[in-house]
Amino acid sequence: MARILLLNGPNLDRLGQREPDVYGLETLAAIETGLKALADELGHELLCFQSNAEHELIERLHAAADEGCDWLIFNPAAFTHTSIALRDAVLASRLPMMEVHLSNPMAREPFRHHSHFSDIAVACISGLGAFGYECALRAVDQRLKQAA
Q1: 3 has which bridge partners?
Q2: Helix H or strand E encompassing 126
Q3: CDD domains from the xrefs (predicted)?
């Protein structure tokens, strides 16, 4: 059994209300509930954390490394394009990471086209809405089985 951290950045606590035409109608709580059930089914433990504060996300990454997490599924949200500090925390955690985005940043405004995380991610999943999180969790499971 692996311990997987699902980490979500700013404004994702507003899913279901915020720009539903871009981000969908499903709430973060509903996404997390479904992913926890899937993780249980796959034989893993899923820990979930969301914050609008960069320093809290960094502290959670530090804690994840210290508590023996095996993988990171991360939607840095707007911090994708701005946070070198979060990038450094991901690298310091030494956790393999799946980068997830509900929308496709490359199909949006030009300032969203650069990610500080994509080059350090095992894979990037974008544009699939909430289903992208399931894809990431299944991909992590596949990677774990291949490594075993």
Answers
A1: 45
A2: strand 123-126
A3: DHQase_II (cd00466)
